[in-house]
Design a protein that fits this description.
Rossmann fold, five-stranded antiparallel β-sheet, alpha+beta, Nuclear Transport Factor 2, Chain: A, 25 strands
Length: 487
């Protein structure tokens, strides 16, 4: 039992005097000014993460240690060069993420070959990229966010990451349960919360919250959770997560839904997934929660060395009553996307094979994609969207891979960034003393290369084989085609 000699505390910490000992509370206070190690998740779509982290650590003088519970993830303990300022970061080679934020997606089981996945509150997109990685971009993800102002950040992150099997939508998360009942194999609900995480970060400084704020958030969190459970297939998994340790937003939310829909779902045991012994609460103040809430996970900062987080994995075992509603609808023809004819596809396949040694047809078959045209733009569109959600309006979908200019294919940056490591031709190496000016967005004048300039689009690499984006080889210069907004 917690002792009664707690130190002088902030209000946020003082609320936990009945749960944590005074020694534990002092430990949390003692680490408030200690910066968290930077977490990094390598992009397996673009490289072999184990090889890539070694190269990055050597190139930028980093000391790294693996994140034990998350595949392809490391903590950067010391950095000779800032990890947020590298060309690899700008081109989506890795994502910088607090290790605690890696936990929710790590808890899901990806046992279905091509899962349908719903990310209910996706922006800014870090956890969405994690879902892409865990599904190997073979599942289809509806990445939704209710805030229109947050959509551009989500779209930018996903475009840089190189995932294709996703669509970005902008709808209230509370509606998905009645629009798409028992549809999704996996759902992530990283719920909007007060961010009462008891450990400040650069993006989330500590702030005091009020009972009114927490209860207002709780009501929305309950409605989002009910919606998510309705949208989940029987036997499917939903991870409910918040970056708040406030019980009102965590155990109390799940407890309310458990009491409302008894026998509809269970809180699953997840301790084998993580190396932390930090169970959820079954009692807080005068409230008593369902005993199964002990299976949830509380990431206390003093026990994990990370920021505070709450996670629970729920498995649906029975249907939840609902009144079906028709989702928003848009005739797909209004997107102006049209299937590429077989003749055009054949010409594009041949050109890409000759230019880069890449089989576009094989990629499309593996990832279950279709090739569409919109004006001159060429797009990969996920088959799962066309089969299951073709009338649902989206903000962004699939990947634009290039332009069809007359009778020639011109690749886009995202295509070269995603598949460049698979190219066996169509590459150009620049000199070491030219790398910094290229990264700065400048052209290379009079490049010394053994290729005849014909306006060809090439993958630009340095002596270490790093993908530095796309260039166009012209007489007397290599034109820099790095995206300006990321330079």
């Amino acid at each position: 039992m917690a002792d009664q000699t707690a130190p002088q505390l902030t209000h946020s910490l003082g609320r936990f005097t009945g749960i944590l000992t005074s020694a534990e509370l002092r430990r949390i206070q003692a680490i408030q000014d200690t910066p968290l190690h930077t977490g990094i998740r390598l992009n397996p779509l673009k490289s072999d993460p184990d090889t890539a982290i070694q190269a990055l650590a050597q190139h930028y003088d980093w000391q790294v240690t693996p994140v034990k519970f998350c595949q392809n993830a490391w903590l950067i303990e010391t950095a000779g060069f800032p990890p947020g300022q590298t060309i690899e970061h700008r081109l989506g080679g890795y994502y910088l993420q607090d290790a605690a934020s890696m936990v929710p997606v790590s808890l899901l089981d990806f046992n279905v070959p091509h899962p349908l996945i719903l990310d209910m509150a996706a922006s800014p997109g870090g956890k969405t990229t994690h879902l892409i990685d865990r599904s190997r971009d073979l599942g289809f993800i509806l990445a939704n966010d209710a805030s229109r102002s947050r959509i551009p950040a989500l779209r930018s992150v996903l475009a840089a990451w190189g995932g294709i099997n996703q669509a970005v939508t902008n709808f209230p998360g509370e509606a998905f349960g009645t629009w798409f009942p028992e549809t999704f194999d996996l759902i992530l609900l990283d719920a909007p919360c007060s961010m009462e995480n008891l450990r400040p970060t650069a993006n989330h400084p500590l702030r005091e919250t009020t009972p009114t704020e927490r209860l207002r958030l709780q009501e929305r969190q309950i409605q989002l959770l009910i919606s998510g459970l309705r949208a989940l297939k029987i036997g499917g998994q939903l991870v409910y997560a918040t970056c708040s340790l406030a019980p009102e937003e965590d155990e109390a939310v799940i407890d309310r839904v458990l009491n409302t829909f008894q026998q509809a779902f269970v809180v699953e045991e997840i301790s084998p997934k993580v190396p932390f012994q930090a169970p959820g609460l079954t009692v807080f103040g005068e409230e008593t929660f369902h005993p199964s809430l002990a299976h949830a996970l509380r990431l206390w900062p003093h026990l994990t060395g990370m920021s505070g987080f709450f996670c629970a994995r729920l498995k649906k075992i029975n249907s939840i009553p609902h009144s079906p509603e028709a989702p928003p609808s848009r005739d797909f023809s209004r997107t102006f996307l049209e299937p590429a004819s077989r003749a055009i596809q054949t010409r594009i396949f041949d050109q890409i094979s000759q230019a880069y040694g890449l089989s576009l047809e094989e990629i499309m078959a593996t990832l279950r994609l279709q090739l569409f045209l919109r004006h001159e733009g060429l797009f990969f569109i996920p088959e799962a969207y066309l089969e299951r959600f073709a009338s649902l309006p989206f903000e962004f979908i699939g990947m634009q891979i290039g332009q069809w200019d007359g009778d020639s294919f011109q690749p886009d940056h995202e295509f070269v960034s995603r598949f460049g490591h698979c190219f066996t031709s169509g590459k150009i190496q620049i000199a070491d003393d030219q790398v910094s000016q290229w990264i700065a967005g400048r052209d290379i004048r009079n490049p010394k290369v053994g290729l005849k300039p014909q306006g060809q689009f090439l993958l630009v690499a340095d002596g270490d084989g790093r993908n530095l984006g796309m260039g166009k080889l012209l007489p007397k210069r290599l034109r820099n085609l790095l995206p300006r907004k990321r330079v």
